[in-house]
Description:
Keywords: Signal. This protein is mainly β.
Amino acid sequence: MFSNIFLIPLIFLFLTPRNNYADNLKMLKIFGKVNDFDLNTAEIDENCIQTCFSNSDCILAFFNEISKCLLFFYNSTEFLEVVETTRDDGYFVAFKTNLTDPDPNYCPSGVKFPPRIIIDDHLIFWNKYSGGIWHYRKCKPFQRSNPKVTVCIQVFITRVGITQQEAKDYCSWIGWKLIGVANPDEAKWIFDKSMELVPDQKFYEGIWIDGERKTPGYDTNLSTSNPDFCPIESEISPKIFLGEDPISWTNTSDSTWQFKKCIGNWKMFKRSDPEITVCMQVFVLGNGTTQKEAENYCRSIGYQVTGVASVNETLWMLSKVWKWIPNLPYYQGIWIDGERKTPGMNNFTWTDGYTVGYRAFEVNNSMMSFHNEIKPSELENCLVVSRTYQPAVINDVACGKGSGADLGVACGYKLE
């Protein structure tokens, strides 16, 4: 929506140039609104944009035609989602941004509109997605020299005992990747940040970062520069990455090696109790998919609706849906296996033939209401994985129809 972008000329604040973003500080205005925030109870400020511009901690102003104004501040904001609207909607958003062009009358086109600003040495940036969606996430910027890139890092505390795969899936779930470190400064900042968040952490309680040793026995080098290096037979463990999972060969005897993988691009999960391997894939079938339609689809391709045995599995499912539908609405989920045995209890019958237990139903990963809050007589005894207003991703819904707006299903099978 290129025509929706305006330059708001205010007092130009010239900052000491520290990088390419610290030149002219301005406000850029579009027709838009901030999702999950309501202006009805906001106070009136006829100088909403100027108020934000004058406050060094303000990063965004959201207001309407009658000057009801909400301001968003760097020190109290972790995430924002802005959606472009039209003139008729009567909503406006003004981004605080540094422009590098020396022309004081310069106004970028829609294609070149990347709001970025530096506050307290932190780079604040917005990413634009399809459908006129803008996302803001706070980060710590680090300038790397070889190659010359700027990376943003943030530390998240989830729970004690999080696995490496769960850490990767969490980063993927919020739209990013598990990051590696390129210098001591980055490692020290990650450590200091974790100590700030958890001051009483115990020895060897750490934060997952990217990186996996390629060659056993090398303490710091993840690869060998010796072109003649060849491991002894007992160290041979052939592994290759194709798609999402490492594909390994297992030595079952002195002369026998076995190779197993899921079909196509299906995701492999290794479960520990019992020790089995399960393959899964998520399918988006359309808005309003019923439980029966979900079951029939999985059967039609030779599999069944899968249950879940870990937080890791549920986060992966949601990340797949989010990848296909970046503007995923709340509570529009995908069907998974499981039906409550006893009303009011978190005990479920699994029918897929391989799921047992309830390890996926941690307090922060399941949101059980047991009945429809609007129609209390309507029980919610079946399960979907969906985006919710809480960290939880497992949600109970009415069997059969679900929420009425569910999108698809997770199918699976046990790898023999």
